[in-house]
Amino acid sequence: MRRFPRPGRSARRAVGPGTVVALLAAALSTVGAPGAHAAVSPSTWYTLVAANSGKCVDAASAATANGTAVQQYTCNGTTAQEWQLHPAADSGFYTIVNQNGAQPAIDVDGPSTADGAKIHLWSDGGWSSQEWRPVQESGGAYHFVNHNSGKCLDVPGASTADAVQLQQYTCNGTSAQSFSLNPAGGGGTTPPSNPDNPDLGPNVKIFDPSMSSSSIQSTIDSVYDSQESNQFGSDRYALLFKPGSYDVDVPVGFYTQVAGLGANPDDVSLTGPGIHVNAGWSGGNATQNFWRDVENLSDTPSSGRLEYAVSQADPFRRVDVHGNMVLDDVSSGNSTSNWSSGGFIGDSRVSGQINSGTQQQFLTQETSMGSWKGSNWNMVFVGDNGAPGQSFPTYTTVDRSPTVKEKPYLYTDSTGLYNVMVPSLRTNATGPDWTGGSTQGTSIPITKFYVVKAGDTATTINAALAAGKNLLVTPGVYHLDAPLDITRPDTVVLGLGLATLMPDNGVTAITTADVGGIDIAGLIVSAGTTNSDTLVRIGPSGSSADHSADPTTLQDVFFRVGGDVAGKATRSLVINSDDTIGSDLWIWRADHGNGGTVGWNTNTAANGLVVNGDDVTMYGLAVEHYQKYQVVWNGNGGRTYFYQSEMPYDVPGNASWTPGNGINGYASYKVADSVTSHQAWGLGVYCFMSTNPSVVADHAIEVPDSGSSFHDMVTVSLGGDGTIRHIINDSGGQVTNGTMTQYLTSGP
């Protein structure tokens, strides 16, 4: 029986052509078309051609009465096969009306939500059963998802016969649900760009299982050939795999993200050689293997071992490894100087053994592992399953992560629509957040994001933020002449392919209000050649609001001063908001790079991290080579789980490197004298005073004697170049030429 309008839902009011144009413009305002596509004109009609049969969607017998079957039929150029898309009230949905009569709409009988429900014409009543979301496929065709049922327009049994009435059916990606949308008569304009399938630009490579293995492999190889040794280049790439299985070889080079687009890691399965990172480009030494990313997929390497020879800024998140892992270069033939200096594995599962090999230090967090082998100076395990027990040196094992929020990720749902999942805040967390079922969190449709692409400026991006949009930043380097100003609570800024922000003219790249729930992830922030006082500022000075229930979070955000250009920044990251969480942050003043970009008076930078907020927590913090204190912590209640730091290599001498008061050198980690509580686990501070090996630092860590609790610390004089006299305050032995490593289990 035909239903009546739902209570509280009025029939669609009639709209004129001008109104339709305005609605369509609004619906498309935040996305780019797949190519140079114009908007649909309300006076243009289209044919819908079924991919499986080549036949047209047709109003049976050219009828217009309510209940007329919508069928497939040999294309004949009549108005019974011409359709127009009217934007619905909800962004991304359209009512599809026929050319004939009073323009009845394609409708699901009932309105049913069941598989097999018939499709017919009915007078346009504004019902959700008459609203369809066109989801563009990789080949340019569309499948149409019903607003009421979430099911797809479908040719029953993939029939190729005339007069087969269409139905709705669970979306399955087959050709029976794929339709091309063509201007009637071959004229008119191109179909609408789909807000659920926005243009992500030429450097986002999206793979699906229908593509040939050879074409996928060719794209992967081409990207790697350009990125294997491209340490300070400007190219950025994201290789994204839609749900399915792939037999591929995926070497991961600089500025390359490899990620699955499933809701869960095992929705994307890689076999064959799969993911691997070595250091063949540098003779097997992986200590400069930076800036790459693997996440949200499963990998069953044919060798039984996934090689991930990385150092800083190489996150490995939400990955299900069916086999073993090794974290140094074992494939380039160098077994004597194949050093590696990582690193971070989070929210993952490794069925076999993780072998750290030559890794100097490493953090695993909320990860399940069959076992762990290896150690060097500072191996830290937080909230893991299967980790080795506490035994320092060199293992620091913390049972749980007290407060943590995993990184947001892009995924496609069962209908092929793009969304971003923002995982929920976890307390006392252990193990991955996805092994017990779907990740808990908030799914945000891609229509709520502004897609930042080449040509965008601070003006266009800030306009999107002011309009309430989140940001999806596609691979590229974006020069900013003003800060990106984030003021809305729970705003998500997610970078793809190590997208990079560079502030020009001394501005700050990102500023936030003192509001909760902001999530910034997957970005490099690289200083420009005019000094910035601050690169990123979380909360204004004097922030004091309590955000413990909804903290601002930074995941996989990497800072760079020099190396690519002669960058300058007094402070890289300043955190004023209370309760902020950082996860896998590398804050780096470059010690090497392109010619003319590195030097004591060239890439100047005083401090890497300054924390003024209370109850700030850091997991996986690395800060290196700044010219004064690497870290200055002024807030109470701070916590750090894993810290890695090298003092600056290029100190001219102690006369120019002192905070005064008779102290030699700047400590790496400085907690202000006014702080009453601070805790830290697993800290390593190293010196390599290559410019002047006689330089001395009195302390690696300086903290108040009361209220501070530090666990498991190590200092190293690399090659014996330079001296650190004490580990924390005046505790811990000296490292210098002849005694190059010292450990301390607690202090001060």
TrEMBL record:
<dbReference type="InterPro" id="IPR035992">
    <property type="entry name" value="Ricin_B-like_lectins"/>
</dbReference>
<feature type="domain" description="Ricin B lectin">
    <location>
        <begin position="44"/>
        <end position="182"/>
    </location>
</feature>
<dbReference type="InterPro" id="IPR000772">
    <property type="entry name" value="Ricin_B_lectin"/>
</dbReference>
<dbReference type="InterPro" id="IPR059186">
    <property type="entry name" value="SACTE_4363"/>
</dbReference>
<keyword id="KW-0732">Signal</keyword>
<feature type="signal peptide">
    <location>
        <begin position="1"/>
        <end position="38"/>
    </location>
</feature>
<dbReference type="Pfam" id="PF14200">
    <property type="entry name" value="RicinB_lectin_2"/>
</dbReference>
<dbReference type="InterPro" id="IPR011050">
    <property type="entry name" value="Pectin_lyase_fold/virulence"/>
</dbReference>
<dbReference type="InterPro" id="IPR006311">
    <property type="entry name" value="TAT_signal"/>
</dbReference>
<protein>
    <submittedName>
        <fullName>RICIN domain-containing protein</fullName>
    </submittedName>
</protein>
<feature type="region of interest" description="Disordered">
    <location>
        <begin position="180"/>
        <end position="202"/>
    </location>
</feature>
